[in-house]
Design a protein that fits this description.
Layout (H helix, E strand, L loop, with lengths): L10 H22 L20 E6 L2 E6 L2 E6 L2 H4 L5 H10 L6 E6 L2 E4 L4 E4 L5 H10 L9 E3 L5 H4 L15 E5 H8 L4 H6 L7 E4 L4 E3 L2 E2 L13
Parallel strand pairs: 6-7, 7-8, 8-9
Antiparallel strand pairs: 1-2, 2-5, 3-4, 5-6, 10-11
Length: 230
């Protein structure tokens, strides 16, 4: 969810691109996956009829994206287009086939199987949805060797524990960005306190540029949250 403009872009073009990309980068991404299977997303239906996972290979790694949940949120301009008028938001949305009535969000943790380790990046909204998608992809929760929250929003840490507070990935090591963890630890956030704080003693921390695991390098992506990592 970032916009890039070259240094020699004119002021007028910069303004146009920034406004347009701000709208599209936020609003288009949650809806992009909805373009083909729109029938599953109408009222009274859910995204559960969509594939629960997709695989691809990257070198020797098997990478699996998991669809662990989906929800519709009304009034997307209140999320993605607060810096423009309703008319402009509607115009840009219509030109790009994006609904102005609701945004469809998809929660998609990623599994990286290195051959010797199974690394889960983010855990979705809840343990049940993530466990179900993992199973469909051929994994048990006990197969996960490392859990890496990229940041601490609820849809990324919700699956760390179940409704009773039991660890979903009890046999895994936990790794996350130091600055992100520290920022949320000071905030007295209810979700963080319920999901992350109990795991603090088991958590290892890294900075940008470090190897999360061999072959996977952490990149600072601060802004969405104070210490978000990629």
């Amino acid at each position: 969810m970032f916009s890039y403009v070259t240094a020699n872009t004119t002021k007028e073009t910069h303004a146009q691109l920034t406004r347009r990309q701000t709208l599209l980068s936020g609003a288009a991404l949650p809806l992009a996956a909805a373009a083909a299977p729109t029938a599953t997303l109408v009222a009274g239906h859910s995204a559960t009829t969509m594939p629960t996972h997709r695989d691809f290979t990257l070198g020797d790694f098997r990478v699996t994206t998991l669809l662990v949940g989906s929800r519709s949120v009304e009034s997307p301009q209140n999320i993605f287009g607060m810096n423009v008028s309703a008319d402009e938001f509607n115009e840009v949305s219509a030109a790009n086939f994006i609904s102005t009535e609701a945004a469809q969000f998809f929660f998609t943790p990623t599994v990286v199987n290195t051959g010797s380790e199974v690394i889960l990046f983010d855990t979705g909204l809840n343990a049940a949805g993530t466990s179900k998608a993992l199973n469909a992809a051929g994994y048990e929760t006990s197969d996960v060797t490392h859990v890496v929250p990229t940041h601490m929003h609820g849809d990324h840490i919700g699956g760390l524990t179940d409704e009773s507070g039991n660890e979903t990935f009890a046999g895994a090591a936990y790794v996350t960005g130091q600055e992100e963890f520290d920022s949320w630890a000071k905030a007295e956030n209810e979700g963080f306190n319920a999901k992350l704080r109990p795991l603090a003693e088991k958590m290892a921390f890294f900075q940008g540029g470090a190897d999360v695991r061999s072959g996977i390098t952490a990149v600072e992506a601060f802004g969405h949250t104070p210490g978000r990592m990629g």
